[in-house]
């Protein structure tokens, strides 16, 4: 019977309702986890328990500059982004350097917002583990982009029609 089973890919893709662009800028006064008095920090972003981004490792630096960008699609705004920092250790389990949550519901939308996340170890909430600087842009996604394009064309068509450039538009449309 048609219609039973997994939905087609296009249908699933259109269920992503928001786009979250993140610019991971830098860390400030991160925790020491290595014997030499430094750490090799990297950052993980997790959403609903799933890793969605992992930054580069910056060796021996407690004030690392990443300047890495990523874009994540979100189905809803109720799940916060879980941000975790680790110290890379060759051949050993990486050490935890603190975590923070980014709450999406509180974010102003369609604007690039600077965010400072204060890192905490839930097991030792008194410890100062430094902070991360990011900027985030949360944009609602349209279910269908056809309508908007049509409207844009209509506007262009009308403007150009009045100024006598209608033939250029018709040519561009057929490309
Ligand atoms: Ca290390």
UniProtKB/TrEMBL annotation:
In terms of superkingdom, the source organism counts as Eukaryota
In terms of InterPro entries, this protein maps to: C2_dom (IPR000008), C2_domain_sf (IPR035892)
Keywords, ordered alphabetically: Calcium, Metal-binding
- Give any Gene Ontology cellular component: synaptic vesicle membrane
Q: Domain named C2: which ranges?
A: 1-117
Q: Which residues form a coiled coil?
A: none
What Pfam families does UniProt report for this protein, alphabetically?
C2
GO MF term set: calcium ion binding
GO terms for biological process, alphabetical = regulation of neurotransmitter secretion
PANTHER family assigned to the protein according to its UniProt record, in alphabetical order: C2 DOMAIN-CONTAINING PROTEIN (PTHR45911), DYSFERLIN-RELATED (PTHR45911:SF3)
Q: Of which family is this protein a member?
A: Belongs to the MCTP family.
Protein name, entry field: C2 domain-containing protein
Q: Which organism is it from?
A: Champsocephalus esox
């Amino acid at each position: 019977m048609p219609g039973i089973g997994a939905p087609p890919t296009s249908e699933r893709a259109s269920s992503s309702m928001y786009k979250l662009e993140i610019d991971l800028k830098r860390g400030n006064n991160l925790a020491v986890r290595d014997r030499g008095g430094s750490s090799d920090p990297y950052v993980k972003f997790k959403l609903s328990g799933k890793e969605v981004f992992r930054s580069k490792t910056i060796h021996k630096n407690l004030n690392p500059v990443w300047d890495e960008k990523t874009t994540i699609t979100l189905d809803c705004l109720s799940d916060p982004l879980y941000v975790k920092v680790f110290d890379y250790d060759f051949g050993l389990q990486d050490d935890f350097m603190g975590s923070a949550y980014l709450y999406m519901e509180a974010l102003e939308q369609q604007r690039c917002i600077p965010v400072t996340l204060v890192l905490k170890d839930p097991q030792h909430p008194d410890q100062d583990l430094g902070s991360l600087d990011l900027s985030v842009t949360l944009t609602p996604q349209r279910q269908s982009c056809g309508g908007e394009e049509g409207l844009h064309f209509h506007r262009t068509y009308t403007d150009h029609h009045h100024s006598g450039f209608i033939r250029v538009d018709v040519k561009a449309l057929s490309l």
